# Entry
Amino acid sequence: MTMFQKYMRVFILSFAYAAAMALPYIHFKFYDTIKMVTQTSNTELGTLMTIYTLMAMLLYIPGGIIADKFSSKMLLQISLTLTALCNVVFALCPSYTSAVIIWGILAITTGGVFWPCLVKAVRDSGDANEQGRMFGTFYGAQGLVMVCIGFIDAAVYANFVDNFDGFRYMLFTQAGFLLFSCLLIFVFLHDKTDYNVVAESKEEGSLFGNLIEVLKIPGVWILSVLIFCGYGLYVGMGYMTPYTTNVLGASVTMGAILGTLRVYGIRIFTGPLSGYIADKLGSSSKLMIIGFIALAGMLITLLSLPVGVSSNTIIALTMLTSFCCMLLYCVMFASMGELKIPVEYSATTISVLSLLGFIPDGIFPPLFGYWLDAYGSKTGYVVIFTFLTCLAVIGLIMAIIINRISKAKSAEAQA
# Structure
């Protein structure tokens, strides 16, 4: 593939991901509106995400096995089409009952099968020396497309006086994005690339044969711990916004602006940058070693800030902390190449890594909430950021181990 074809392929995959995630995470943009149209309480609305997250986690393993056995292009198109249909059905029947059913279906169409296919396709977009750039661009483009879709959704919604009409046509617009991404995948995405031809020679076995083989690979378990730490830190960064307002004394407006920039804005730049640096270093684990060390130092510094510190200091430190976190987040999966995990097991490996590595999504928010309730804001945040610092240290150890394994495997290959 030419360089243009590689990056076009990765951008299309990013576009598909951003469009697919618009409905399951719609409460990020239209929290009060979705509560109103479905006539739900805060607890009921939160239950939707519990249903979605738990079902997606249960489906990661079978989804990865299916993704390794069947065409990723076909599965992605089916997933995107069904997700578009979910948007249309929810627009026409915006009740809590329909939402429960739809969010359960979304766990399949945007989680269990869709995610392994997507990451597998990203890995197949470049060779072993380009994995950092492929994944970095993938995450960076996600941020850009998510911001664009968010602005367009808001514009469509605001164009209608009636909130129900605005919400309905906003969902129709999201369905249009999904069908457009489906068309792009049909035209531009191919299952076979220059970088996964080895997969053609794999032996056919039972559906669970791949899973057994993947679980036998020590590097998969090491990488799972690293992703657990890296993703846990990403989840923990969400608590920097209330920390800056409730403890450091920043205004709510400043906290909201900083939070938006940390979640979406920084990703646009850190994605490509982290990939470029990782490939220049010749190893994503080297970048993660640097990132974990820097992130631990930033968290310790953040805890030492006095109340009433200047706004410029808060902005600089919180943005630098988020920058270091996003550097790690954007290249975590790129280490599959360093560990020489077989290409034919990509999707199954991604499912195992996602199942184990994304556990923080389900346990960290209630854990952190308990600490804040039990210890109060000031002490609670000290406990949270101390815990995150410990995660950074564990992640650093895993990154060092991965780097040493990578060097050993490279030496064996040259011998």
In short: The CA atoms of residues 228 and 357 lie 4 Å apart. Confidence is low (pLDDT under 50) at residues 199-203.
